Every structure is written in C-alpha cells, then in structure tokens.
C-alpha cells in the first residue's frame, strides 16, 4: 500500500486572505505544524512553504502553496516530479460549501465540485489524490457572489466549529498516513456525521 507522504493545504497567501473561508486548508496545516512544533520553510523550487512533520512515525511534508488557490496544481506537480510521487501519495485539504461549517469528509475520488483549486490539482497532478474536505457552509444570501462568501472572514461561531474539526482532522491524518484511506474514512466520515 502506497502511503500519503505530502499533505497540501489549499489557500491564498498574504494578510488580506488570512482567516478567510477559502483558507481553511492553510489554517488546518498551521494548527498541525504548531502542535508538533515544526517550523515553516519557504522553498522556492516548489513555490510553497513546507514543514516536515512526523505523523504516526512516518515523515510527512505539509505544504502551503504560494501560487494562490486556483493554481495549486503548479506546486503539486513540482513536488510530484521532484519526489517521483504519484497522485495517490498526496492529500489535499480544502473548503467545501456543501458541508456545514466544521463538518469533515474524506474521499479518494470525485469531481472538483466547482472548486477551481481542486480542478487545477486534477489537471496537473491527476485525479487520484486523497481529498480532505472541510465544511464552510453555503452562502447565507442567495444573491451574494460565491467569491465574496469564500473570501469572507470566518465568523467567531464558525471558528469554534472549525477548531473542533481541526482536532479531528489531525487525528484523521495520523490514521490516513499510518493505516490508509479506508480506515481514515471510516473514522472521519462517521465521527463528523455524529458531531
């Protein structure tokens, strides 16, 4: 069984995007790196900030691309070429508007679901990467532009739900790396549904 060795958090670089719904991938990885006291290092060759961590006794590279969400595949393809990894060695963490805030869903296949960053990953890396979806909920006002919703700041009530989700997500990634996607899906998708 090939194990996941690279975990990509999708998000946009820069202070203006900090703490926005579209950046939950970055926020999740920041939380994990902080919990493991692992520093971030800028790597020009990958156009990304990386942090090497130990998950369940396995070395795993956390990656925050600086290419902006819609071009996340650029960093992924550079990493894949450098490490000679197939798509199934990657896991992408990203926001999902079809899930309630704080709900998690782990999947090993599926469409991009209208998410441009995921679409770019599928085009440049291939479709076989693991997907960790983090719910941000649907836009509140039907007339609101979707872009304004995903680039909007996370509210305090959403924040508390996400904090809880990130703890579950961290444990889920440990399981994913150690025992594979099926065990992790059973844990994540069941636990997230119940909460």
How would you describe this structure to a colleague?
The chain is an alpha/beta fold and 195 residues long. The protein has one domain: Peptidyl-tRNA hydrolase (Rossmann fold), CATH 3.40.50. The chain has helices at 24-35, 72-83, 116-124, 146-150, 156-179, 181-194; strands at residues 6-9, 41-43, 48-55, 58-65, 90-96, 104-107, 130-135. A seven-stranded mixed β-sheet has the order 2-3-4-1-5-7-6. The model has no long low-confidence stretch (mean pLDDT 94).
Primary descriptors:
195 residues, Rossmann fold, seven-stranded mixed β-sheet
What's the helix and strand layout?
Blueprint lengths: L5 E4 L14 H12 L5 E3 L4 E8 L2 E8 L6 H12 L6 E7 L7 E4 L8 H9 L5 E6 L10 H5 L5 H24 L1 H14 L1
Parallel strand pairs: 1-4, 1-5, 5-7
Antiparallel strand pairs: 2-3, 3-4, 6-7
Helix pairs in contact: 1-5, 2-3, 5-6
Q: Indicate how many domains the architecture comprises.
A: 1
Q: Tell me about the biggest sheet? A: 7 strands, mixed
Q: Which class of secondary structure composition applies to the elements?
A: alpha/beta
CATH architecture: 3-Layer(aba) Sandwich
Q: Tell me the span between the first and last alpha carbons.
A: 31 Å
Query: Any idea of the CATH class?
Result: Alpha Beta
Q: In which order are the strands of the major sheet placed? A: 2-3-4-1-5-7-6
Supply Rg.
15 Å
| Number of beta-strand segments | 7
Find the CATH superfamily. Answer: Peptidyl-tRNA hydrolase
Strand content: 15-25%
Number of helical elements: 6
